Amino acid sequence: MRGLFPFVSAFHLARYTVTVTVSPPRPRSSAPSDPSTPTHLPAPTRSRWQKPLLGVIGLSLLPALWLAYERVSFEQAQRTVAVVMDYPALKSQADQYGRDPLDLLAEYRAQGVNGVAVFEDVLGNWQNRGDVFVKSGADLLEQYPQEAFQPGKFYLAEARPGVLERLEGRFSIQPRPVTLAGREWQEWNINPTYLPVGPDTALIDTLKSQGYTVVYRPYDDPAVINVAADWPDVPFVAFNGTEVVGARDPERLEAVKAAMGSRIPALIEATTQKGLPELMEGRSAARMFSLNAQWQDTLLPEETASKYALAARERGHRLLYVRPYPTIAETSTLLTRTSELLGRAGIQTAVPQIASFEPSAALRYASMLGPLAALLLIGLSYPLPRLGLLVAGLALLGALGLNRFEPFGGMALVASIAFPALGFVLWRSRMAHWFTATALSLAGVLFVSALGAGPQSMLGLEPFRGVGLTLIAPLALVLGSYLPRQDLRQTARDLYRRPISTGDIVVMGVALAAFAVMFLRRGNTSAVGVSDAEAKLRQEVQDSIIRPRFKEVLGHPLALLGLGGGLPAYFPGLLLLGGVMGQASILNTFAHFHTPLLISATRMFIGLGLGLALGYVLTYAVRWGLKVWQSYGGGLCERGDGEVQVMEVRQ
Predict the structure, then answer these.
(1) Where are the residues of the annotated region Disordered (predicted)?
(2) Contact criterion met (CB below 8 Å) for 338 and 309
């Protein structure tokens, strides 16, 4: 039980007579990784299958490595984005300043805009342009009390001859033609102002002739008969709201799917749109990033630019959907800063060429052997192999079950939970073993990428299932290897009878709080918020370099400190578990498949470098502090002359 929380209570020591002797001072070690320094960690168990299973892992790395190479080649060819300006918002700003929208757009084009989002026209747009009149029956009756206008109806008339001919046969709702007040009207039972009437072809043709990338934004209305029949010839379509056009009617959705042609649908960040997965069958999509207009107004232009650059550089977004600020000056600052950050990241503004990543299924199946071998080796390396195999089997079933027994996703999760634990299950007696554990985690990275990266997951449509488990399961796997080689019932009795001091409770409380913070601060939006100062620091770091992950910068030093030796009791075991969180974070980083592989690798290596440097500094500092405490702390220790050692304890 020495390695599993060997608690000793000060209360119990007080009941015993302690005989001590003073020995000469030990020679001071020059390095914290001195092999002679005890780590107080349970010795790992060796399995006779260790070398064969490590060999299987090594062989299965070959197909995984090739798949990683293909993925990097694919992603390097996808480094173009379109900065797309919202045209209605642009027109509103231009009207406010008395400017022509196209002239203002040309000004913004010099600052990086190369695309425009144009919404489908509604009848209200026609009225605003002076093409039609839409009047309520009540208003017309007040104006013409002698006429037979109906108060509950709406009336539509041409302001420009021939306009209403475009609406013939468009809607399932049939208006009634009437002649009142000396004019021909269409009498509607509903307000037709918001009925979609097709694209503004004149505007779209003008934008295309000027070289802009046009994103068309159609509306859905069940009254439209020939849905999508008049969509313009543009490269991208971005649907509005939470549904694609025709999502509620399978026949209409099939008509939309057929009408899409070569147009690419946009995947709007943080917006789940019903019908989009069905619409995407057999085609790819473009990830599109936008900010809510109300939220954007609370941010400085530089902050907004940082988010757009981050989306393009690290999250695979190919369309950056920009809304102008209330003022032209703020908008110019946003666009200029965004262009600067995109250029710094090597991303070009051009028409994005969208393709799908199609990895080889045979190579992915061959890569499955690595995670299976790693999980089996963990089980066989437990002090109680039967328990280890049971744990490994349950982990395998759980990973597959979470992924609905889809083999690639399930085995990617197995790799994410097995490889962070494997190194510390097999080796944990000196600081050099941190490098071994990290090397095995890097091998796990290749397996996660090979098995998890596919057309849907790289677009963010197929999320990695079990992300929370990737941070918890490795801890459990390593903790299980701490168990002594004895009957589990005896272990439970020993733990139950083990005296616990107030200090033990405090240490365990702090450790649990730290693990909780590390777990809750996962993902882009965590359950634990960040301070304004940290948010500012994050922005500065991510604008300058690729920001490392918090769990790695904290976890790696904890592992090095735990492996460095010299710490008493159960501290090394707790610290090593913190280090497992750091290793797990490495694999978790690569579970975001929409992030380019090289970006994730850069983030990981920055975290490793910082963690390694901090770990060695921390280990030296702690060892120095302990020596100072032992030499000058007073009490039982003689100052400078020797070290007090407890030699015998008698009741």
Answers:
(1) 22-46
(2) yes
